[in-house]
Design brief:
Length: 846
């Protein structure tokens, strides 16, 4: 504190006044007892603040300040100076700056003045240290030059310098105050600086705050001589701000008097090891940190952890999860080996794991099966590493129970490669087996065969009896097909009611192999045709089978499957429940079908399709017409529907064709309605099921009627029974919507399907059409006559008009008339003709 009295002066070397402090009046006292300093000159204040990071040290320095040299508090030195003993000392500040301070006193005009002269000698000391290091090096060089070793080192000096720069580890030369004198290129790469950028930096500047105290402690031990060298791990701050882990090996270089001059540091990048250590099992990490934490993690982890000696394999320790998974008690495990316990389901897996550990020191994610105490097997994924415990190599293993994952994996594989309904391989699995078979065929001379099995009329059964019955049928068929083949053969379901059988190891001769395949196919046909009871109903099914024999060719799996498919369709065309072989002619037919599809598309674009009309007669008078599609083919002339309708339906082209038919029919109906003094001629148009299910079916018809000016009452849509079984509610709704706008409906081919009469009651129909198959044999087959009579009676009961198609003779007409039929259609009256000829028939009163 300041007090009145003699003046206490503090001066720098240049004698500029730094501060003034009053001392007591009593001249017997040499100075202020606590030697407090209220202020400092700006430069000295800055140095003190930077060193001690404290404003307090600047304003009221330093009664209790320990001198860096460790000589005691500041006050005794001031007392010594005032007592007449000049004192010179050197002070090192914590920021690396060094000051030379001289304290003395003098009496001036009765006042005791204490002179403090401080000179910064940081650079001088650094130069002296550098000169000392250089002198030390020169001394070493002189000593080396006096020996043969010196000559060898001198000869290899250039190689040494190259090694310094290209060393795989970083090399640092550091002054004893922690400043980098020089470093090699590798160290620069580690911290992201160029070597010249690092020169002059202190290690604190590239060390994170948390790592500075340990580093400073090591330096102090080296400087004091407590240790000759030191090795430890730390982090450096890279130029981009990220942290990098290194391992340092530091040796202190001393001069002839034993004083440290500088340090040589070897720096090794250990980021990879640190990253690997982070991935080690929780048990190993716990062991390294502390026994208590290790034990907690070791016991609480859900994975099975075990510790075995490397030399004899005996268990030293295991956790609770290990005991829970294996079913053993701790006493049964400790001191015994995995072989004693029979834990490995396959001992070869243990040998593989041990070999991996011997080669690399670790084993990661090794999958194997293990046996529990009760004999049950489980899948485990093991990771293991070698570690030392009490200087004895041990194996730490962590095993995770993968049984549920393996079960899920098997289930995923089953779903990916097997049909969930029948359990048979699916299309993907079949193609994979075909690929393997074709690869094997290059080394094998025996033939194979592929059988494509397709159920006949499965859709009808599925639609009439329900999908659950259809599923039962497919399961039974799968069982019957499997019972007809060998274990080496493969049966697969590739979709819907389609099955494929691949027969292995047939004869080398093509004809004999084909015969063997046919025998199996006949056996399958016989088994499928056997009656079966499904959901308390007896059902009889048949199938069509296509066969292709392959081997030693360049076929692909897809090509072979296509060949069998083509052969199957030939069997269908032959009347079903048949067997056919693939032949090149079948392939040609497939190519022709593809060509026909392209021509249909072109025909739609170029308006090559037109409508012909066949009269519908009542009492000798034309009362309507059925519109029948014709194709004015540019090369083949006029083609009837049988030539292109099947392909159009299979490819979906029936939809744009159907739209064309509706548009042309509406135009024609409007034209005929405009003829003076003539009755309207309703036009019946066939509608396909696919066309009927289009979202815009209703809107297209209504818009077309509006655009053409046709009367909706003159348009009659003919639907088939097959359209009724798919979503009856939607069908009824569509029909009622169109019916409300004046359109009429006729049920075509009635009696040939399996529709329920309950459906018939709900449909807003106007007409029933007796199929031509009943009319054709009505004179010679009493059953057909009875069916025709039943249809007519049913129509009468429902208030519907009945029309018979396919009438070709007067006798057929007479019988149908006696049965009460209303209208007729057939060649007896006229075949289908173009619109102009139909108009001529109208004019003639036909």
């Amino acid at each position: 504190m300041a007090a009145a009295g003699r003046e206490f002066m503090i001066h720098q070397a240049d004698e500029d006044s730094l501060a003034r402090v009053d001392v007591p009046e009593d001249s017997a006292r040499p100075a202020d007892p606590d030697f407090s300093l209220l202020t400092f000159a700006p430069e000295f204040r800055k140095a003190i603040r930077e060193s001690f990071l404290s404003e307090a040290a600047v304003e009221i320095c330093p009664e209790g300040l320990e001198l860096p040299s460790g000589s005691g508090p500041y006050t005794p030195f001031c007392e010594q100076a005032l007592s007449g003993c000049p004192l010179n000392m050197e002070i090192s500040l914590l920021n690396g700056r060094r000051l030379y301070v001289a304290l003395n006193w003098a009496v001036n005009d009765g006042s005791v003045a204490l002179s403090v002269c401080a000179t910064e000698i940081t650079e001088q000391r650094r130069r002296e240290e550098l000169e000392a290091a250089q002198q030390s090096q020169r001394n070493i060089d002189r000593m080396i030059e006096q020996s043969e070793a010196a000559r060898r080192i001198r000869d290899s000096e250039e190689r040494y310098r190259a090694s310094f720069e290209q060393a795989a580890v970083g090399i640092l030369h550091t002054s004893f105050d922690g400043r980098i004198v020089r470093c090699n290129r590798r160290f620069g790469e580690m911290v992201g600086f160029a070597p010249e950028e690092l020169a002059g930096l202190s290690f604190q500047e590239i060390t994170p705050p948390g790592d500075r105290p340990p580093s400073r402690s090591v330096f102090e031990q080296l400087i004091s001589g407590a240790v000759a060298n030191a090795s430890f791990e730390k982090r450096y701050v890279r130029k981009d701000g990220s942290l990098t882990w290194v391992h340092l090996t530091i040796a202190a270089q001393r001069d002839s008097e034993g004083r440290p001059t500088h340090f040589i540091t070897m720096v090794q990048d250990i980021n990879a090891r640190k990253e690997a250590e982070d991935k080690l099992a929780l048990a190993q990490e716990s062991l390294r940190k502390s026994e208590e934490r290790y034990r907690t993690a070791f016991q609480m982890t859900m994975d099975a952890v075990a510790l075995n000696r490397m030399d004899d394999g005996k268990y030293l320790d295991c956790n609770l999860a290990f005991l829970g998974v294996t079913g053993y008690t701790r006493d049964e495990v400790i001191g015994r080996t995995s072989m004693d316990l029979g834990i490995w389901a396959d001992v070869r897996d243990r040998l593989k794991m041990v070999e991996m550990v011997k080669q690399t020191g670790v084993c990661r994610n090794f999958e194997a099966q293990f046996r529990k105490k009760n004999g049950d097997l489980l899948w485990g994924m093991m990771s293991a590493t070698v570690m030392e415990i009490d200087n004895e190599p041990c194996l730490l293993s962590i095993t995770r129970d993968m049984s549920e994952a393996k079960t899920a994996e098997s289930e995923i594989k089953r779903l990916a490669y097997y049909d969930p309904l029948t359990g048979l391989p699916n299309r993907r699995m079949l193609l994979e087996k075909l690929r393997q078979a074709l690869t094997y065929d290059r080394r094998n001379s025996r033939k194979r065969a592929l059988l494509f099995v397709d159920l006949d009329n499965f859709k009808t059964l599925n639609d009439t009896l329900g999908h659950h019955v259809g599923d039962l049928l497919l399961q039974e068929v799968a069982h019957r097909i499997t019972s007809c083949i060998r274990e080496t053969d493969t049966a697969a379901r590739i979709g819907g009611d389609e099955f494929v059988v691949m027969l292995e190891n047939l004869s080398e001769a093509q004809e004999e192999a084909a015969s063997q395949a046919k025998q199996v196919a006949e056996k399958i046909l016989t088994r499928i045709a056997e009656p079966q009871t499904l959901s308390h109903r007896e059902c009889i099914s048949t199938a069509s089978i296509g066969i292709t024999v392959f081997g030693h060719g360049k076929e692909s799996g897809t090509q072979i499957l296509q060949e069998a498919d083509i052969a199957m369709y030939q069997a269908k065309a032959a009347g079903r429940s048949a067997i056919r072989y693939f032949a090149p002619a079948l392939q040609a037919a497939v190519n022709a079908r593809a060509c026909l599809e392209d021509e249909i598309r072109q025909g739609i674009r170029e308006n090559q399709f037109c409508l012909w009309y066949q009269p519908q007669v009542d009492g000798g008078r034309i009362v309507g017409a059925e519109a029948l599609l014709r194709w004015n083919h540019p090369r083949r002339g006029v083609l009837g529907p049988i030539e292109f309708i099947p392909v159009a339906e299979e490819t979906g082209l029936i939809v744009p064709l159907g739209r064309k038919v509706i548009e042309q029919a509406c135009l024609q109906a409007a034209t005929w309605a405009g003829v003076p003094d003539s009755a309207p001629i309703p036009i019946a148009v066939n509608v396909s099921a696919l066309q009927f299910r289009q979202p815009d079916f209703v809107s297209h018809i209504l818009e077309t009627i509006k655009d053409t000016g046709a009367d909706a009452a003159n348009l009659k849509l003919e639907i088939t029974e097959s359209m009724l079984v798919d979503n009856l509610e939607e069908t009824v709704a569509i029909m009622k919507t169109l019916k409300a706008h004046g359109l009429r409906f006729s049920l075509d081919d009635f009696g040939t399907g399996y529709s329920s009469l309950a459906y018939l009651k709900r449909l807003p129909l106007d007409q029933l059409k007796i199929d031509r198959t009943f009319v054709r044999d009505i004179l010679v087959n009493a059953t057909n006559g009875a069916l025709a009579q039943a249809i007519i009676s049913l129509a009468r009961a429902l208030g519907l008009v009945v029309i018979a198609e396919g009438v070709e003779t007067d006798e057929q007409l007479a019988l149908l008339s006696r049965l009460g039929c209303d209208c007729y259609q057939g060649f007896l009256f006229s075949k289908a003709v173009p619109a102009a000829e139909f108009e001529a028939l109208l004019s003639a009163g036909a």
